[in-house]
Amino acid sequence: MQIKYNDRIINTQDGITINELLKDEIKKTNAIAARFNNEVKSLNYTLNEDGELSLIDISNKDGIRVYRKGLLFIIGMAIEELYPDARMIVNFQLSNALLCEFDNLNVTDEVIQNINKKVNEIVQKNLEIKKKSMTKEQAQDFYKNKTTSKGRLQLDLKTKKHISLYWCEDYFDYYYGILPISTGMLKLYEIIKYDRGFLVRYPSRKEITKLPQFKENKKLLATLDEYDVLHKVLNVPTVKELNEITRQGKIKDYILLDEALHEKKIANIADDIVKNDKIKMILIAGPSSSGKTTFAQRLGIQLRLNGIKPVTISVDNYFVERAENPKDENGNYDFECLEAIDTKLFNQHLLSLLNGEEIEMPDFDFEVGTKRYNGKKLKLDEDEILVIEGIHCLNDKLTALIPKEQKYKIYISCLTVLNIDEHNRISTTDTRLIRRIVRDKQFRGYNALHTLKMWDSVVAGEEKNIFPYQEEADSMFNSSLIYELAVLKDFAIPLLEEIDNSKPEFSEAKRLRRMLGYFESIPAEYLPSNSLLREFVGNSIFNVH
Fold first, then answer.
1. Does the pLDDT of residue 178 top 70, yes or no?
2. How many degrees, rounded to 5, is the angle at CA 408 between CA 352 and CA 298?
3. Which residue from 171, 276, 312, 462 could staple onto 287, CB 3.0 to 4.6 Å apart?
């Protein structure tokens, strides 16, 4: 058997594990997983065919996922030993940290101290973590007589043919994806008391040898809590409950309730705006596939109900001349940086409009890279308000000349609150990526491979230009819908299946397919015509494309 590793060929026998083959390399590089023939594999994976192999550390997005899951596993192991009746729930991700809580244990300083001590012991012992696969029937039999917190299997076995449990000594747990092969690989972490629970902090991909400074996200946390509380009232904390509702034919009622939550929140934001007559401008920003276009139009309806007419200005028409546009480190034009915007002209036009003057609006010609003036005039009436959407809208430098009291900033994102089970969360980024894959195919003619190839650069731009300013918002809107992945599933899976293992993006496509496989399908025709999700699947009542 021939294995290609780092541009060299290794001849070895069938049946050897990656760890056995590259033990010294793994230790030297601090690898936590591997990629074999474009699939992410455990370091205990057995090689039985020729292929290309590379090691993954936590600077890789797959590696940091493995590290996070490994930390949760050993924390669960510690809690099982210390507080066997406690149920840990993984709630949200906040600034290189996971926010967890207990539903039946008070989080005190003593509890956190005990957990930290026990986790440290587990790490220092460098215990082996093993994986055991079984059929769903075997899993049901196995769990039948278990009474510990993880003895209650929360996974919806009706969507699975097989289930794999991870074991360390006598502790077991289910985790979606790959785990490290030993507890000693998880030395860098911090567990601290926070809010109503505790934070599990871990390194960033940019600095893998130390923990980054934790940044408070109080407004973001409040927004997540708001939606989490409602979904708990509806008793839909995990995919298992959602699937049961779908099978029982009750999902239409839950769709209407979820959509009503959106409408109520949008109405509240509109009410907040109109009660302050100093506000002359609404600025909307959020990461890709948050549903900004539909949100802005639904907000416009609520504003009109309050006697205010929204007037939209596109920041895209205020790019600098192409020759003046900054370039990135690769020598390509950087259209996402703030310096790509002609902020001087933009602010002059905004001031003129707010002073009741008329302006001539530019149209930016992207082919030539210059502004065109085609006689398009704009003047604000007394009952009109400016609505501006763009990636820099939360950054005051975009509208530096406009007094703060005249601006109302809204941050919108798809902040997922539904989990696969209590220890396996669905990331906000994954939900947005699925939305983007479906929309790119439906309305832009791009296949899933194209979307996956450019997604990392999209996220990098968001981390630089949007996320640092999210706490500057006056309001936050969570555009997620508890049922949305069950609708997007039938659109996305066929697109992801087009990507084969000859492509580096295969591992990501397979991971997303597996995640969507946990959901019972919900027909798109159940969606209301004004649903924000229609922006991605089509047939929206709004002009969103």
1. yes
2. 100
3. 462
The C-alpha atoms of residue 464 and residue 326 are separated, in whole angstroms, by: 15
- Cα(410)–Cα(397) distance, rounded to whole angstroms? 16
Contacts of 478 (CB under 8 A, 6+ apart): 223, 224, 226, 227, 265, 412, 413, 414, 415, 417
Cα–Cα distances in angstroms (integers) from residue 250 to residues 253, 399, 517, in the given order = 6, 47, 20
Domain spans, the chain: 2-56, 61-201, 218-277+408-537
Could you tell me which CATH number the domain at 61-201 has?
3.30.980.10
Tell me which H or E stretch contains 142. Answer: helix 136-144
Whether the pLDDT of residue 148 is over 80: the answer is no
Q: If we measure between CA atoms, which residue out of 467, 479, 345, 327 comes closest to residue 400?
A: 345
The mean of the pLDDT values for the chain is 92
Instruction: Give residue for tokens 């050993």.
Output: 74
Number of H helices, E strands in the chain: 15, 23
CATH topology for 2-56 is Ubiquitin-like (UB roll) (3.10.20)
The residue behind tokens 């205010």 is: 308
Query: Which one-letter DSSP state was computed for residue 520?
Result: P
In whole angstroms, what is the distance from residue 361 CA to residue 413 CA? 29
Distance from chain centroid for Cα 338? 24
User: What DSSP state is assigned to residue 146?
Assistant: -
pLDDT, one tens digit per residue, over 306-331 is: 999 999 998 999 999 999 999 988 88
